[in-house]
Amino acid sequence: MELQVGAKVLLKNTEGKYLIIRRSPYEERGVGKWDIPGGRIDAGSPLLDNLKREVSEETGLELTDKPRLVAAQDLMWPDRHVVRLTYIGMAEGTPILSVEHDAFQWVTFVEMEDLENLDTFIKELIDDGTISETTHG
User: Domain for residue 60, yes or no?
Assistant: First the structure.
């Protein structure tokens, strides 16, 4: 079994809305799910540098603050174990999506909470209270 580390970030804008992006058919896993930017980290490169790279690659945005770690989750599949670190950070602008995603929305926390087809692991963090409307202070 392979061990990997992933980093995701819940991006909030100055209007208090959160960025969600929909997975495209580019990758078979999770097509049509609403998710947040991020991905696997490259060994030998600092964690936050990887997170900034993923945000830039997937959305064309830049983080406007130092993101804060809010959760660590174990994602277990038959062939790999992924430790997923979820951050909250700020960003501004209009996303320009990579081929990995085919739509985006800036949503309120309540809209995100009620969204159908939200990524299972983000939904888990909302449902258990790890991420809430007041998490980003």
Answer: yes
104's tokens: 């985006």
Given pLDDT bands bounded at 50, 70 and 90, which one contains residue 27?
confident
The tally of domains found in the chain comes to: 1
Cα separation of the two ends of the chain = 38
Residue 38 is encoded by which pair of tokens? 């991020």
Please tell me the pTM assigned to this model.
0.92
Domain assignment of residue 17, yes or no: yes
Nearest alpha-carbon partner for 101 in 5, 32, 11, 8: 32
Work out the number of other CB atoms within 10 angstroms of the CB of residue 63: 19
Say if 135 falls within a structural domain.
Answer: no
SS3 114: helix
Residue type at position 109: F
| Alpha carbon distance 34, 13 (integer Å) | 18
Domain extent at residue 50: 2-127
Cβ proximity of 11 and 91 under 8 Å: yes
**Which letter does DSSP use for residue 133 in this model?**
T
- pLDDT above 70: residue 136: no
Confidence (pLDDT) at 30:
81
